[in-house]
Amino acid sequence: MTAAFYGFIGLLMSSLSAHAIKPMLIENGTFESFNTAQNILLIHSLIALIAVLMAKIFEIELFNWGAVGFLLGSLLFSLPIFLKGFNFSSALNFVIPIGGAIMMASWILIIISALKIR
User: pTM to 2 decimals?
Assistant: First the structure.
């Protein structure tokens, strides 16, 4: 359910940045980073859903940990960028690389999980 919510938020932010708030984002110089954040959120919400399905199908718990990492990492990565796009404080910018590192570690968990499939 969390992954579906993230997908919804990613799509909402995509729609906003393409239409309603595009001029503000361009003026703030945050248009490209905002689009990167929304793409990260959309992609990793879908990948988290797939990882959960893989965990159920192949009974490999490590897929679930990868999914959790994707959700946590994409939140930590995207949220400060979204806040900055809306002119809120960028005090959370330090968590952006942490979110990226968590997503990278999650990809490694997915690779390990996939290698366990026989």
Answer: 0.90
